[in-house]
């Protein structure tokens, strides 16, 4: 449930006239008195490189909708999927505010949201488009109440990366891996797969992780049963996946059996390694394109091991509020019990929107990268 009344600021419908934003008049609202009509936001008007992300100071503040709230953001998460939207790899209607992961406090509440116990001042995290901004309109069904003892920066980090790692390690493998069996996870020195490596261990899997030499300290802190440390591509922080014969090492570690699941967010550079590392009736879970999109390959490549392949996305594993909250509750429980160690790498001011994307795309991050929003 949401925070207790002692931690909330509540204003009833009588205070609606104090809102400077032009919210709909068809139903009463509960809101802070200081919501401006325009706001600061990082906007994409033409797709392109990181500098296509332009910070504007007079973008219209979103209107409150029935069944929703307005969140005053303190943090926005930067994720690789945001770079795919910015480049046009995953097309969106232009112009759009970047981001789809945020955290902050509730600034305005519709009647329907108020009836669910949501109040102005509640600390929340969420995943909807348009989080690279001072304010975001969020359906109440998408809100995650942030419990005591979990910081908003960590809670924001949880919403995309944490939930993604959760479904990858609990559901996307379709139960083709069991406790005590081997799982290969690429890029455990980065954001999402730091979570995934730890969650896989919590699920009872034996984990082989890959990471670059520059992120070996992070990889070693995650409890992997085997860590394959790779050279870096000259001039970058990216792993050189040709610097070690990963498939041979995987087969050596697993006594020739291979891994029942491979979790791969790297893409083009690792697809052959991932398929080659599979055990009989293992599953290749391809969830990202950090090195480029996975090229098409003939399904006959899977016949040698009767292997499976899936290309999942988060929305299909949070199909309703019950599933969303169930996943979040387990993650927040692990965080409170200190079973998960979440690394927030750095927080760029929103004014440095392009720099945040450049940092992530250069492979420099050793954890979650955020925007701090004033």
The biggest sheet amounts to: 8 strands, mixed
Query: What Rg do the Cα atoms give?
Result: 21 Å
- The CATH H-level superfamily of the largest domain is Medium-chain alcohol dehydrogenases, catalytic domain
- Order of SSEs: EEEEHEEHEEEHEHEHEHEHEEHEHE
Portion in strands: 25-35%
- The residue ranges in which pLDDT falls below 50 over 5 or more consecutive positions are 1-18, 20-29
Name the average pLDDT: 90
- What is the fold-level CATH name, i.e. the topology of the largest domain? Quinone Oxidoreductase, Chain A, domain 1
Separation of the first and last Cα atoms: 27 Å
What is the share of helical residues? 10-25%
- Number of DSSP-assigned strands: 17
Instruction: Supply the CATH architecture of the largest domain.
Output: Alpha-Beta Complex
- CATH class category of the largest domain: Alpha Beta
Description:
- This protein has 374 residues and is of the alpha/beta class.
- The protein folds into two domains: 5-160 and 321-372, Alpha-Beta Complex (Quinone Oxidoreductase, Chain A, domain 1); 173-311, Rossmann fold.
- 23% of the residues lie in helices and 26% in strands.
- It has nine helices and 17 strands.
- The chain has helices spanning 80-87, 111-115, 152-170, 192-202, 216-220, 246-253, 271-276, 321-336, 353-361; strands at 29-31, 38-44, 53-60, 68-78, 96-97, 102-110, 123-126, 135-139, 144-145, 182-185, 206-212, 226-230, 259-264, 278-286, 308-310, 344-349, 368-372.
- The strands form three sheets. Strands 1, 4, 6, 7, 8, 9, 16 and 17 form an eight-stranded mixed beta sheet that branches. Strands 12-11-10-13-14-15 form a six-stranded parallel beta sheet, sandwiched between helices.
- α3 packs across α4 (192-202) and α3 crosses α8.
- It is globular and about 65 Å long.
- The two termini are 27 Å apart.
- 48% of the residues are buried.
- It is an enzyme of class 1 (oxidoreductase).
């Amino acid at each position: 449930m949401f925070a207790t009344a002692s931690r909330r600021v509540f204003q009833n419908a009588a205070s609606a006239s104090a809102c400077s934003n032009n919210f709909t008049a068809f139903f009463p609202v509960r809101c802070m008195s200081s919501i401006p009509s325009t706001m600061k936001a990082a906007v994409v008007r033409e797709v392109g490189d990181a500098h296509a992300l332009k910070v504007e100071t007079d973008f219209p503040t979103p209107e409150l909708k029935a069944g929703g709230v307005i969140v005053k953001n303190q943090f926005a998460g930067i994720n690789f999927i945001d770079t795919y939207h910015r480049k046009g790899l995953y097309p969106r209607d232009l112009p759009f505010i970047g981001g789809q992961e945020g955290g902050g406090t509730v600034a305005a509440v519709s009647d329907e949201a108020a009836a669910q116990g949501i109040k102005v001042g509640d600390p929340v995290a969420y995943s909807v488009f348009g989080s690279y901004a001072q304010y975001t309109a969020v359906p109440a069904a998408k809100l995650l109440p942030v419990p005591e003892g979990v910081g908003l920066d960590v809670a924001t980090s949880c919403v995309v990366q944490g939930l993604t790692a959760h479904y990858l390690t609990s559901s996307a493998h379709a139960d083709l891996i069991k406790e005590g069996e081997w799982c290969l996870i690429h890029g455990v020195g980065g954001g999402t797969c730091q979570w995934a490596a730890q969650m896989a261990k919590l699920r009872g899997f034996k984990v082989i992780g890959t990471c670059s030499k520059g992120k070996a300290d992070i990889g070693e802190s995650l409890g992997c049963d085997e860590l394959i440390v790779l050279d870096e591509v000259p001039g970058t922080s990216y792993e050189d996946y040709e610097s070690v014969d990963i498939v041979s090492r995987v087969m050596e570690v697993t006594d020739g059996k291979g891994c029942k699941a491979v979790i791969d967010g790297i893409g083009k550079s690792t697809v052959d390694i991932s398929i080659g590392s599979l055990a009989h009736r293992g599953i290749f879970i391809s969830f990202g394109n950090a090195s480029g999109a996975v090229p098409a390959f003939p399904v006959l490549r899977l016949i040698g091991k009767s292997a499976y392949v899936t290309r999942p996305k988060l929305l299909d594993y949070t199909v309703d509020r019950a599933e969303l909250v169930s996943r979040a509750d387990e993650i927040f429980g692990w965080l409170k019990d200190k079973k998960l160690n979440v690394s927030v790498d750095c927080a760029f001011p929103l004014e440095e929107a392009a720099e945040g994307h450049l940092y992530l795309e250069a492979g420099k991050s050793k954890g979650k990268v955020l925007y701090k929003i004033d």
